[in-house]
Amino acid sequence: MSSFNWPPLYQPYPDPEPPPPPPRRPKSIWPRRLLFWGIPAALLIAAIVAFFGVGRWLVVEDPLEPAHAIVVLSGRLPERAMEAARLYRKNYSAQVWVSQPASPAEELAKLNIYYVGEEFYNQKVLLAEAVPTDAIRVLEKPAANTEQEVEEIVEDLRRDGADKVIIVTSKAHTRRVRAIWNRKAGADLKLIVRYTDDDPYDGAHWWRHTEDALDVLREVLGLLNAWTGFHVRPG
Known about the structure:
The chain is α/β, with parallel strands linked by helices. Helix content is 43%, strand content 9%. It has a five-stranded parallel sheet, sandwiched between helices. The radius of gyration is 36 Å and the shape is elongated. The N and C termini lie far apart (128 Å).
């Protein structure tokens, strides 16, 4: 008699296959695009802001207070001397110093040609503006640039035992004067930098006028020169 094969009570099933991984989303290219275009765009915006703002940035001025002397830097005759005279009449100092720019006087003297320097005309302007002769002093050393002018002013202040001076210059030149002063003068000497009220310089629209554009170019180069140690002499 044949036997009957009963099916097994438990039939093992194979483990189910794991589900397929979700499809990978393609990486977004936007971060790379933002990086590629964002940095140049930011630099361009910064350059535009600097271009339009540099003219006004160059102009600085300090509050007025009494000082040992009012100094007329060379250049822009007669505006600076006239501003110094106004400050003198307002009793901000008892004396006005006049910077003496370097000149070809010696070379011309060899040719029997008498050269009248800018300091001569600045004195005439001061006298015409009611500054007495005994209140005017021409600095002894001819200066080839603003750096040398500041060095001589600092020397004369220390010789006189004074600690404060008002320097009169043009609007676009004020920041460079301050930068040179901070580099050349000690912390014990105080500068009050002032610009002339009659200066026509338009810092807000400097690119519209050739003279203003030249001022900006000269002062920016001069500031770079001052910050890097006076390797050249822009004036």
